[in-house]
Amino acid sequence: MRTEKKIGKIRFRLLQPDTIRRMSVLRVVVPDIYDDEGYPIEGGLVDLKMGVVNPGMRCKTCGGTKDTCPGHFGHIELVRPVIHVGYAKDIYDILRSTCGECGRITLKEDKIEKIEDSPTEGIYQFREIRDKAKKKDECPYCGAEQKKITLTKPTSYFEGEGSAKQRLRPSEVRERLERIPREHLEALNIDPDLNRPEWFVLTVLPVPPVTTRPSITLESGNRSEDDLTHKLTDLLRINQRLADNISAGAPQPIIEDLWDLLQYHITTYFNNKVSGIPPAKQRSGRALNTLFQRIKGKHGRIKGNLISKRVNFSARGVISPDTALSIGEVGVPQEIAKELTLPIKVTEKNITEMINYIRSEEYPMALYVKTPDGKKKKITDMNRETLAEEIQPGYTVRRQLITGDITLFNRQPSLHRLSMQAHRARVMHGKTLRINDGIAKPYNADFDGDAMNLHVPQTVEAQVEARELLAVKENIISPRHGQVLAGGHDHVSGLALMTQENATFTKEETLKLLKSVNINRLPNGKDKKEYHGREIISEIIPDTITLEIPSQLSEKPVKIEKGQVKEGIMDEKCFGGEGILTREIWDKEGSDRAEKFINDITRLTLESITMKGYTISLEEYSLTEKGEKKRQETVDKGIGTAKEFIKKYEEGKLEALPGKTERETLEAMIMDQMEKINKKTWEIALKDLGMDNYGVVMAKSGARGSWRNVTQMTCVVGQMGIRGERLERGYQGRVLPHFKKGDLSPRVKGFIPSSFSKGLRPEEAYQQSMSGRDSLIDKGINPAESGYLYKKIANALLDINVKEDLTVTDAAGKIIQFKYGEDGLNPMKARD
Amino acid sequence: MNKDTLLNHHLVPKHEILSKKEGEKILEKYGVTPEKLPAIKENDPVAKAIEAKEGQILKITRESPTAGKTHYYRLVSK
Known about the structure:
Chain A is α+β, with helices and mostly antiparallel strands. Chain A contains 23 helices and 29 strands. The relative contact order of chain A is 0.05. In chain B, β3 and β4 form a beta hairpin. The interface between A and B is medium-sized, with 15 and 14 residues.
């Protein structure tokens, strides 16, 4: 019977010398690894008692083979004790808190508060005791003088100060720790039932089993040992030399040097990146990867092997756009399709097809056959015919990826669930993965060299799940805000171009446009000389759609009646951006129709934009003489008003806003005034450039850019700033030496009245570059920091899930919400 | 704080102590054991004000802009 048990707590304790010896199967003494015949030396570092890594050998401890023997620990007896780097700080704290003579804490009994058995509080209470105890000059118990103890990183201790400074050898350290009475351990945050402080100093070192440090056989046939084995050899050698020197009665300095060397090797054996000592290198000069490095960091055991794993049946490649594909498809190069395989169960219905795959000797071919009893057979030229005749329902055939198979497509960073969606594969020529650019937005992909990953679900369950839940068409609406995420910039421009009042197309043009969406007739079947763009677009909108969508481009909203666009200029609210029209089609006609609509509209708009041309020229961004005069007036007036503020301020007549000083008020008012200039000039620019201006159309329709980009090019660049304030830094009381000290007027403080099309004056260029650098740094810091914050939150919330009855629970089944979002509404399906 | 001002404050939703029977009904409805419910401290101001004791279940009625009134249940704990 299965019983459930809960883990109450986990306690870690020090590995004590006795335990190390007890779990050891062998005392390692020989620094050499293999003898002359290439056979492991007994008592060496790859002794067969510690496990086997080579096929054909048997473990001398458990008798297991390479696959069954888990490996067994050995140990090294150290001739002299050595400090464990990981505990150097703890030893230091304990030494400072206790008497050098009697080992008791240098505080009176009543001052030693008992530490709570709490993993979080214990350390703080101990620190308090330590800070009090280390100041004592005399032991309250034995009266011995307390000298100052210092730690020279990483592992050397000294006692006394100035000329009386003396080294504390690890053996002395260990003796002191041994003297600490059991009753005083609790106050040192050590559980006396589990640990003794002297175990912080090593006298015996465990040798990990060979399975932990397998040797590799190189192509040349040479054996190459693991870094840990190398480290252990060095260690053994020094240990042996130290032993020899001691027994030979060598002078003290020589012994101490060797002892320090042993300490160095053991320190780097644990952690080869300890600051203060040079890392141990291999002969090639590469720093060794020792125990600490194996666990720590991105490629360490935890982040690199436990949290993340490598997968099979996946591909990665550069992406490029292809409007001929549906948004639900992904173009897969044949070279990739040949490598990706999936198992197909043979049934009566598909047996002939499967036989064809087995017989095939080129691309769409089968690679393996699996019999009903689980035997896997590779298809070769030799057995192709026999296997083709052998298979029958119940067999499984592993074939290459073909057009129509479902795949998962993903781009990192995977910030939301739309970063991985299911696409139908379309095997094609070329060497890149291809997608319709209408679907690039949810992935946040562009085609300047972005690479994406492709996965092939292997089981029928996974494939169905992908098709039904992860398919692009099912995720056109974002689950976050219920808006459409498909569509791109150029498509919005094209839409605006096609629905403008004067957007007329000749009969030939109309036919060509409609041909791109596979419609081979004229709009509404009416034969006319000219057609309006709206009539053409109406052809791809379902007849059931009746809708009004506000427009930023036209006074009147976009009016659609029974699938016919009657009036209004379409912008990002219809497609792209909010995508109200797409959402309506998704709601009314279903996901398949919505997918088709997006495909059609991307092709149609791109075709029209290519036909009519869409461009920007320098000339377009110069104002007419009339406009220029107006612009100058606005700027002069604006600066004049600002100067009045300054005058008021200097006379002390400026009334401060609540919560601000007078100076702050002035700054706020000027900033406000400068922003007003920009906004006013936008109106001037709009009138002067007209609605035919491509830049204006882009800004207004929401395809790309904003009104600010247009005004900066045509009228005024505007106020520059650092951290939202007017320019301050540079010379004393001014930004550049060209200005008067303490001048507060707009131009001195970074207001640029020139436009980009006319060019900036030198001091203006300088001011602009100040602001530019500031925002560049901002861009670097903010996304990086908020990205990390986001990741932390996402990981913390990862296993919260909505159950069938709409309760929200965490992984332990604890209820967080009784009804999802209080209302149980799915944002994807909710409409206002 | 005064009990009445606390309970009548516009940011404090209505808290009620459920009877044992009502509590069991709720547990059955959501198919959970009491410790799976969200907790509220016994010394929480509201719990103190309505004199809730450890082990009782509180029913909280909240106003929601999208769902009108919603109910939330919390287990009083030490």
